[in-house]
Design brief:
This protein is about 35% helix and about 20% strand. The protein is an alpha/beta fold.
């Protein structure tokens, strides 16, 4: 039985946007700041299924589908597929759900959004997890992502879909077995109207991302610095081609007292289901007042 409710809010430009609302099961949880889980570029609310099931024992957890993903509406204007617009949408979600303080767990693009939000609402952010992302994004990783995002591939069966993901992303998850690839495929894809397995996002999200300025030239370091003094966990895959060790080291210097975990034999990005990451997230949340 699902432990969440499917809910919706409306963006300022009229899109119906979806989120999963995992209500906490324990007493006193309503007094704790909820957790907002923000997914990566081609991902959706399902990316956090396992983590949300774990956390909702003691916390309310909201997992939104960004515009153009999952059960959220697609935008007619592809230019709105950008981090600033995504942040504006999430601010609308916070207002809709009447959330005054919250902890952010952001993977990749979701972590960029967390940094952008930091100066906007520093007093409302209770803590943050930045998963394999920093103010500087390695060009190697960007080139790899541009090589597959927006390609409308489809597959005859879930097994074909799993094998397709293994072919394109084994560099990030060298130890995945076929069961892992199948689970991964079911997070990323859906059964399309034509009976084939398709990626669960609007292919037009690639248009702004693939422009020269699409990855963003904004200096995110001052934004990251606004998280200083809060409970922060930095997660990195040891094989990451997005977050370098140099960038991670500078992030640690900018955020004195932050926690860090590096996941061996994982690239971009850790699933957040790894035991060491779960333990670190639980430890971070214990610090959130």
């Amino acid at each position: 039985m699902a432990r969440y409710t499917d809910c919706y809010w409306t963006s300022h430009d009229g899109l119906k946007l979806h989120y999963r609302d995992y209500h906490a099961g324990s007493e006193g949880a309503e007094a704790r700041p909820p957790i907002i889980c923000l997914p990566g570029l081609t991902r959706n609310a399902r990316d956090f299924e396992s983590l949300a099931e774990h956390l909702c024992e003691n916390w309310r957890v909201l997992c939104p589908d960004l515009r153009g993903r999952g059960d959220s509406d697609y935008s007619r204007d592809a230019s709105t597929y950008n981090p600033v617009q995504y942040v504006q949408d999430i601010v609308g979600l916070l207002d809709h759900a009447e959330i005054s303080r919250f902890t952010i767990i952001g993977t990749s693009l979701g972590g960029l959004m967390a940094m952008i939000m930091a100066p906007m609402m520093a007093d409302r952010i209770a803590g943050a997890v930045l998963n394999d992302i920093g103010p500087v994004i390695d060009e190697t990783g960007l080139a790899r992502i541009r090589g597959y995002v927006g390609q409308a591939r489809s597959f005859a069966t879930w097994m074909h879909a799993a094998r397709g993901l293994e072919e394109s992303q084994k560099v990030a998850y060298p130890d995945f077995e076929i069961a892992d690839w199948l689970a991964y495929a079911k997070r990323l894809m859906v059964l399309g109207s034509n009976g084939r397995i398709v990626f669960d996002y609007d292919m037009k999200i690639a248009e702004p991302f693939n422009t020269p300025e699409g990855a963003g030239q904004v200096d995110l370091w001052p934004m990251l610095a606004r998280l200083a003094g809060k409970p922060v966990l930095l997660v990195r895959g040891a094989l990451s081609d997005i977050l370098s060790t140099d960038t991670l080291a500078r992030m640690q210097a900018e955020l004195p007292g932050c926690d860090t975990v590096t996941v061996d034999r994982i690239g971009h990005a850790p699933t957040l289901d790894e035991p060491e990451v779960r333990k670190a997230i639980d430890a971070l949340l214990a610090k959130v007042a």
